[in-house]
Amino acid sequence: MRFSSMLTILLAGLLWPVPSLRSPQPAGQAPSAVIPNEVRNPSVPNAKNEKDAPARSVPRFTVNVHRKRNDDFCFLTTCPAGAEPRLTFPTQIAQKPCGTITVAAAADLTDVMNEIVANFQKSTGCTVRVSTGSSGNFLSQIENGAPFDVFFSADIEYPRKLEAEGLAALGSTYLYAVGKIVLWVRNDSHVDISKGLEALRDPSIQKIAIANPQHAPYGRAAQQALQNARVYDALKNRLVLGENISQAAQFAESGNAEAGIVALSLALSPELKEKGRFWRIPENLYAPIEQGVVLVRASQNQQGAQKFLDYIKTPETAALLERYGFALPAKGKP
Hints:
A hairpin with a 5-residue loop joins strand 1 (62-67) and strand 2. The relative contact order is 0.14. Among the domains are: 100-176 and 288-331, 3-Layer(aba) Sandwich (D-Maltodextrin-Binding Protein, domain 2), CATH 3.40.190.10; 179-285, 3-Layer(aba) Sandwich (D-Maltodextrin-Binding Protein, domain 2). Helix content is 34%, strand content 22%. The chain contains 13 helices and 13 strands.
C-alpha cells in the first residue's frame, strides 16, 4: 500500500505540465526571457506590485535556486517546457580569500608596510599580520622555527642565507628596495645639521641614537658613515643603541637623544616629518642597504605568501616605496 502511494505521487509529478519559458516570437527574432515585477523589485510588497503594475501577459517560468553545501548561491537555472535544454545563468562567484599571512618585516618598513597591507587586504580579502623588528633577530627566530610566512629584511644577505640553509623557498629571494639613512633632529634643536655629520661634534649633543650594528643593517650603515666621515672615534661614547632602527628613531623623537641616524623611510613618515628635520647622509659613506624579501619554507600558507610577494612587485607598491624614500632596483641603484 505504501509503495503504491509513493508510485502514484511520483507519476503525478512526472506528468505535471511545465509552463513554457518562452512566449511565441516573430520569425527570425531571438527569444527573450521576461522577469516578473516581483522578482525585479523585491523590496516593494507583493500587494503593492499587483495593485500598481499595469495589466500585462507575462510568461510564467520556474526558477530553481541551487545552493552549495556552505549555503552560498552558486547559480540560477530556469526550467523550460518539454525537451528544451535548460538555461543556466551563473552568478558572480566571490573570490576566495587566501587566509592569514604572517609577515616579519624590518623596522624601517613600519609605516609603508601599514599602507601596503591595507591596500592588499582591501583588494584580496586576505588577512596579513605584521611583526616589525631588527632583521638579524628575525633571521635567528626563523632559523629556530618561528612561524612566519614571509620575511622582509633590511639586508638581502639574510634571505639569501635562509635559502642556502634550506629554510626558504628556493629562488624566492627578491630585491625589493634600497634604503637610505639621514641625520635627524627635533624641530626645537639649535644644531645646524647643514654641516652634516660634523654637526654631531656640537657640545649640546650628548646622545646620538643609532640602531644596534650587531643585528640591525641600518645600525651598520650608520656606523660606517661615522667612520668614513672620520668622526666615529670622537662620537662613539655618545652613541645610544636601539634594538632596531624604529627604536633608535623613538629615542631621537622623544628627546632621550639629541640626534639620531635613522632610515629615510622613517624620517618621511607622518609622525617624524612633523616633529623634526633631517639631512641626507651621502651614499658614498656607507654600503648600499639592499633590502630583500623571501618566502619561508616552513610557511603554513604558501599560496597566500606567494600572493603577497606578487603584490609587492606591482607598480602600486613600487610607488608607495618611492614615496617613503626607497630607491627601486628596477630604476637603478642610488
